[in-house]
Design brief:
Length: about 250
């Protein structure tokens, strides 16, 4: 699969979530707020367009079988895919990353003062993410199941306990922005995960974990913001509301 210079960046990221790792590596903005092509972005942000295109194409070819086509999947199927592919592995990564951040800061703080800030951000990020996933599993996903069920059976939509699906979606997307800012701060503090000379094994593991965390979280955000949430709103708009709905 060839990625072209005239392709819109957020569309590439949305269609092939694996490509987010390349956008993050070269600090390329892939949010849908920026409706620009790779070529336009390379002129604006000054990156090597040919290099990026070749890395993107290779990645998409290599991982073609990994990125499943979600266009024909139901809301519960997409939510389940996101949970298994991102939520659960990310949760697994949180505790060891926090332990490493504390350990590396304690041992190397004298020569690398930024490790304190990194530790503090990681300590703040862990509960933020745990709460975010809990809300998605306990509030949003059951609502998505209900929506899909109503849509498939052509039944009237009963009032959902959070009102419109747009309400929890708005909250989740605001949380995506919030942890996105924390990840950006970590990226800056670690100079894009560049290890200092002579970094020990723990230091290496910490940066590797942070980089993996960023990639997986941004892919997760992408799938939810660009695929799952718009699909849910589209389905809700197609279903007639029960007139007793007070929202
Ligand atoms: Fe999620
Ligand atoms: Fe999310």
């Amino acid at each position: 699969m060839k990625i072209n210079k005239t392709d819109i960046i957020w569309e590439v990221a949305s269609k092939y979530p694996i490509t987010v790792s390349v956008f993050l590596k070269y600090w390329i903005e892939f949010c849908c707020k920026w409706n620009i092509t790779l070529e336009e972005s390379s002129k604006r942000d000054n990156f090597d367009l040919d290099l990026v295109l070749s890395e993107l194409s290779k990645l998409v070819d290599f991982n073609n079988s990994e990125d499943i086509d979600l266009s024909s999947k139901t809301l519960p199927e997409i939510a389940e895919y996101i949970k298994n592919t991102f939520h659960l592995p990310i949760r697994e990564l949180l505790y060891p990353t926090e332990v490493l951040a504390k350990k590396v800061a304690m041992v190397h703080w004298e020569s690398h003062k930024e490790l304190y800030e990194i530790r503090d951000i990681v300590e703040g990020l862990v509960p933020v993410l745990e709460m975010h996933f809990d809300k998605e599993w306990q509030i949003l996903h059951p609502m998505l199941n209900e929506l899909q069920n109503n849509f498939d059976n052509n039944t009237e939509l009963k009032p959902l306990h959070c009102g419109s699906i747009k309400n929890p979606i708005r909250q989740m997307e605001s949380e995506h922005d919030n942890y996105g800012d924390m990840l950006l701060e970590l990226k800056k503090l670690t100079s894009n995960y560049t290890l200092p000379d002579g970094a020990c094994r723990s230091y290496q593991a910490l940066y590797a974990n942070l980089q993996k965390l960023e990639e997986d979280l941004m892919r997760h955000t992408n799938l939810e913001n660009f695929i799952l949430h718009p699909r849910a709103i589209e389905i809700e708009n197609k279903i007639s509301w029960n007139s007793s709905c007070g929202f």
